[in-house]
Design brief:
The protein is an all-alpha fold. Helix content is about 55%, strand content about 0%. It is elongated.
Length: about 90
């Protein structure tokens, strides 16, 4: 479940890292076990959690991927502040 209540920016980034790892890892497994229903359910669950977390981060801070740049923004905000690995709010 997305743990958005009371999460700091750093905690949200950590959650994004965790669910992103889970999605990538299970997708590699599914490449060789495409009929594993439990693995597919795991993928769908954590892929949805990842999407929610990325959207929450984008809404509250800045987009982490280009597909989360909101078209209703009145100015270009992609890469307008330091990235997390550049010391930006980690």
């Amino acid at each position: 479940m997305l743990r958005q209540n009371g999460m700091t920016r750093q905690q949200l980034l950590q959650w994004i890292d965790e669910v992103s790892f889970a999605v990538t890892d299970i997708s590699l497994y599914l490449d060789t076990h495409p009929d594993d229903a439990d693995a597919l359910a795991f993928f769908h669950h954590y892929n949805e959690e990842r999407k929610k977390a990325l959207e929450l981060y984008s809404k509250n801070y800045a987009p982490l991927t280009l597909d989360l740049v909101r078209p209703d923004d009145d100015h270009w905000i992609w890469a307008s502040e330091p990235w997390p690995w550049e010391g930006g709010h980690c």
